[in-house]
Amino acid sequence: EESLTYPTKNIIMPSEEVVFVLDNTTFSKIKKAASTLGHEHLSIVGKEGTLTLSLTDLENKTKNTFAMDIDSIEDTKVSFNFIINIQNIKIIPGDYTVTISSRLISNFKNKEIPLQYWIACEKESTFNQS
Fold first, then answer.
1. What would the DSSP string read from start to end of 7-65?
2. pTM for this structure?
């Protein structure tokens, strides 16, 4: 408990641009691939109606990558690439509803127990509406 950071005031999520379910099995595959490839960043990419989770190296774009299509996006005119440092995603195993705002904040809300995490996205993240 001593090493956890707690908010000092209530956090109000800004308007949400992306909502999806990240199940424990998918997240375990992502963590294992990140460890194997040595990547530190998870990209949550929405493009051409598909939501994809991919592992990337922001400094070396030629390195191997790992990607999984996990959902579809209703608005095909929206494109985004929200980047989160894998080291910041230290969460208790489970299934989570993930909400992301274009203001570069994400909320991971456990579907089984009353637990949620607020995780910042990297400044390299992008969000575009046509």
1. -SS-------SEEEEE-HHHHHHHHHHHHHHT--EEEEEEETTEEEEEEE-SS-TTS--
2. 0.84
